[in-house]
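Exam revision sheet. Question 4 asks you to relate a sequence to its structure. Input first:
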Amino acid sequence: MVERQRRRRDGAVVLAAAAAGLMVGATGCSGDGAAADDARAAANPVEVLHRAAGTLVGAGSSKASTSMEMATGGTRVTIRGEGVYDYEAQVGRLKVLLPQDPAGIDEHRPITELLAPGALYMKNRGAGVPADKWVRVDTATLSDGNLVTGGATDPFAAAELLRGAREATYVGRMSFAGTPVRHYRGTADLTAAARDASPGNRAALRAAAKGFATATVPFDAYLDDQGRIRKIRHRFSFVNGQHKGTVAVASTTLLYDFGVPVDVRLPAAKDIFAGRIAE
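Answer key, structure tokens:
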């Protein structure tokens, strides 16, 4: 087995506490400091967004909630996920809940997904896979680079898409889940994001740049005062081969509880299913 574990260090806790104290102090000031920060955010939004993925690595880890909405066959469906992610090791674990059957009859078991550089592992993937086995997918072989296939966008891949931001505007300050955030809106280029991404995401984003209907991805990003992503929403567009039409997918990722312990154990080779997966 491969074990990746994130532990808090006392120094990191002290720094986080100090940063929190500075933030509290700033909110009690006259507002001139916040106004200056807003002016800088408005002046260089693309530069701010390019740094967002690196800021997450500095934060270490977080909890994550995901939501993926798509319209298919005249019906809008939503797939939700919850889990944790280690940005230093680029590994995470999500429990993904599929929507009910339109008739409300079939109940789907949650899919457990393990995210790792270049790979997606899924348990309870579907019919024909034994309950104790994992399915492994090489994300570079997927036409969407696993930005859509798994039903949840890898949180770090979502952040690295911002490395491809070419146009962005600063919308303004707001509060999200009780946290002051700055809202940015723009478009990212998948080809540029792939070029500047970390080695673990480079091949997958390159595949997405070729596989989506367009390499341009509109986004809304909400960053806190430390530059960490709190919410990011992407709108992907891909071609449905069966119906020869374009499908729009909106993927939203929420990040919170930074610094939480993360213990992700990737499956051993003997635990990975090698047979055919039923459709």
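Marking note for examiners. The chain is about 25% helix and 40% strand.
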